[in-house]
Each structure stands twice: as C-alpha cells, then as structure tokens.
Give the backbone structure.
Amino acid sequence: MSAPTVTDGATRASVPAAPRKPKRRVGRGLLWAFSALVAFWLVAPALVVIPLSFTDKQSLAFPPTGWSTRWYENFFSDPTWAASLWSSIQVGLLTTVVATVVGTAAALGLARLGPRGQTLARGALMAPIIVPVIVVAVGTYALFLRFRLLGTLPGFVAAHTVLALPFVIIPVSASLAGLDRRLQDAAAICGANRWAVLRQITLPLVAPGILSGALFAFVTSFDEVVISLFIQSPYLRTLPVQMYGSITRDTDPTIAAAATMILVITTSLVVVASAVALRRIKHAR
Amino acid sequence: MSVSASPPLPAAAAPPPGRTRRGLRNGSLFLPAAVLLAAFFLAPLAVMVVRAFTDPQTGLQNFSWFFGDAVQVDVLIRTFRTALIVTVVCALLAYPYAYLMTVVGPLGLAVLTLLVLVPFWTSLMVRTFAWVILLQDTGVVNDVLGFFGLGPVQLIRTTTGVVIGMSQILLPFMVMPLYAVMRGIDRRLLQASSGLGAKPLTTFVKVWLPLSLPGLAAGALMVFISSLGFYVTPALLGSPDTALVSQQIFTQVNGLLEWGRGGAMGVIVLVMTLVLLAVSAGALRLLGGQRPEGRA
C-alpha cells in the first residue's frame, strides 16, 4: 500500500475505508460471504421447528410430507401441555413484576454510588449471570426441599427473579447514564421533593430502559430450564420443563407446536425490547 | 456480564451533602435486591458447599471419591476439552463477523446486531430441540452429507453433536464483547501503520489483533465458563457416554440423591469458574496496561 498516504489527523476515524483496490473489494466480499454464513448458522436452525409443527404424522422427520394443525389442537386439549403454558405465563408475569421493581430500585441506587462502590455493587448484582446455573440449581433444590418450596409459585418466581435481575439492571442503568441530571436538579429547585422528582422526572425519562428490562425479565423466566428442572413438581411444571421431558421421552410433534409458539412469543418480545432500547440510544445522542 | 451495555457515566457523582441520610436511602434502594440475592443465590451456593464437605459425614471424602474415580476424572477432562473446542470454534466464527460489524454502515450494523441478538434471546429449549431434529440419524444434516456422498454420520449422542449445538448457542457471547472492543479501536492507527509501509497482513497482526485481544479474551472467557456449566444442550444432544460435569451433577443429586458428591462436583465447577475469572481479570489488567491508548 503506497499511493494514498495517511489523511490529516483531523478527519474522523469512522470514515469507511473506501475500497480503493480490487483486491480489497474481493476481501470485503469474502468477509460478507463468511458473515452471511455465520448469520445463517445462528438463525436458521431454530426455524425448522415451524414447518415441523404443521406435520400431519406422528413423527419428527424433517421436512414433513403432509400438513395439518392437529399438534396445535393437541397442545391445547392436552391438560399437561396447556397447564405448563399457563404456569409459564404466571411465573413469567410475576417474575417480570418483581424483577422490574427490584431491579429498577437497585439501578437507581447504583447510579448514586461513587465509581468504586458502583463496580463492587454491579459485580455482586451481575454474579448470577456468571456463576454456572447448575451449581445454583443444586443448592436451590436443597433449600427448597427443606423449606417446602418445591413446585410452588413463590419458589419459581423467587428463583427466576434472581436470574432476571441483571437483565433489568443493565438497560435501566444504561438509561440512567444517559439522563441529564440537571433536569432532576431543576425539579428539586422548583420545590419538588425526592419522591416527586422520581415519579415525575426520573421514571418517565428512563421508562424505555425499564420497559426493555421488563421484557427481558419475562423472556429470561419464560426460557429458564435448569433451575426449573430441579424445583418442579407434578403440580407445577413450566413449559420448558415439559418440553425437556417430552424430548427425552417420546417423539411427539406437539413439542414442535410448543416450540413454534415460544419462538414467536420470545422473538417478538425481544424485537420490541431491542427497538425500544435502540430508540432510547438514538434519543440520548 | 455487561461488556456491551454500560457506557461510562458522563458527569461525576452528585455533590455530597447529607451523606449519612443519603447512604441510608441508597441502602434501602438496594435492600430488596440484596435480600433476594442473599436468600436465593448466596444461600443455595452456601448450602451446596456445606453439603459437599458434610454429607454423609464431615470430611473430604466426596472430593477424594471424585478424584479417585477414573470415570469422574474422565468426565472432567472431557468437559474441559469440549469447552476448549467450543471456545475455539466460536472465536473463529465470531472474529470476522465482529470485524465486519465495525466497518459497515448504520443499517448493516443494525441488521448484523439483530441477527446476533435474536438467537441470543431465542429459547434455549427451542434451539436445542431444533438441533435434535437436525442432527438425528435421519436428519437434514445427514441428508445433506449423504447428497455429497459423505454419510450417514452419527452426530446426535456424540461429542461432535454436543460441540455443534453448544458453539451455535454460545456464539453471541463471543460476538458481543469482540464487537464492543473492536468498535473502540482507533482506525487511524491502521492508516498510520499502512502509511509507514506495513502490508495489510502485518498491520493486522501487529496492530489490529493486539488491540482486539481484550475482546477476544472476554468472549473466550464467557464461552468457556458457560460451557463448563452447560446442562440442557449436552444432556439432550449427548449421551451418558459423552456426559459433562453438569450432567454428572444432575445424576448424582436428582437420580442417586448423593448430595455430598453432587455438591463436591458443584464446588469444583464453581472454583474453576472463579479461578478462570480471577486469572483473566489479572490478564486483562495486564493487557490494558500495555495497550497503546486507542480511545479518543
């Protein structure tokens, strides 16, 4: 590379490196092709559950040869499948409420700490993402066995909330970081007490962060398998646990119908949450 | 880990009047989270550690059983090997992808980000089930291999199948920190390097690679640690013959009611995780110290 030398330092680095040489363009093309393959590898496999759920045969052969909606009918008429969906929704919604309230409070507390305290507290609050879930699951099982929380709604909600908290704290903290503190000060000068400032200024401004946190909390709970496998009982079993059992036990395409519904629900929630988060970032700039 | 999502606070902390009262208020904001974490995260960990050393009686017998049993040691080695392979596969796939994210326009970036985020949040059960379908003996992957005259290969119930599923599921954990670090690299350094006569390959090896190393390290750490404790995917794509530590824990506790042994294995996984975190935190600090100042 000799012809175009360094541009003057004033131009920003984000100027796209213009493909000046054909060799470079080939390189970029290869990079795109490779990344497209990676994206395909990331996205495509999960999609096989959709056609499979409409198969007309009692088999998990893919691709299906005939079509029907009987596995959806089966899902909603089978008491165990329908009950597990209902349990998952209940646990998910309650977890969302608890994790969002508790996580938002913690994020507000974090924002008021000094840099050192913040690193420490953040580390403690994020720990549940880093420690292997299987380890937490065994301990939770022992504890729940002792305190008779196995297969109970409060038990599920408490266990899921701990896992969901980091996913509330991250977006709410990011929202708070983009907040103009002068607005809160202005409100305080105008005579608003702390509670009024929080309710009328801070919370509305970080609402997008709270909303995306709430959605992520629901998805975390709706998806959780490992701890749920340990703390389930025949009376309370969430949808992923039911699916786990079904995969190990039988070849019943009802599970594909369940998987398709989960896929649609979680994907739309995540797309909404990401859109909200992206809009917030744009506004903050 | 909040690698990607925590921009630094703009203004410094607020002025300090009334420190004690404020401290109290802060405390009450953290209180619910602290109580929940103590009761449903720390307490379970503590119970497991205590069980490991006291069940059935006080002592180290659970640990000596583990390290004295060739089967368990094999499982531990297999877990490490699998985690290592998964980490390498993820790194090879994620590195070019994350690099592309740093050079495309805003629309391209949004698309590439979404393509990583959506699978990241797609149900683990759904993705694992999809792999069970694809990798089964008469599945699509074997059909394709057969078309090229390469099949059939047994994929499900083998370590290969486990690696395929795990590396696909864990790939976002590698892409996100890599991108977060690469985004911060000052591209003028590349221009400077080529301006001084370095070939593109030299620029890559001597400038880009070292600067992106913290991201690679963070991603590798996330993937490796997650692999060590992964349960659902290896359990459904593997077999008892390809079991990883997490499956052994499940069997000991849920199947055999051997709380002490299961707890001991949990302690081993936990300690390995913490050691890895400590080592890499030290390494990152070292890297960060040497690193020529990239950010503007």
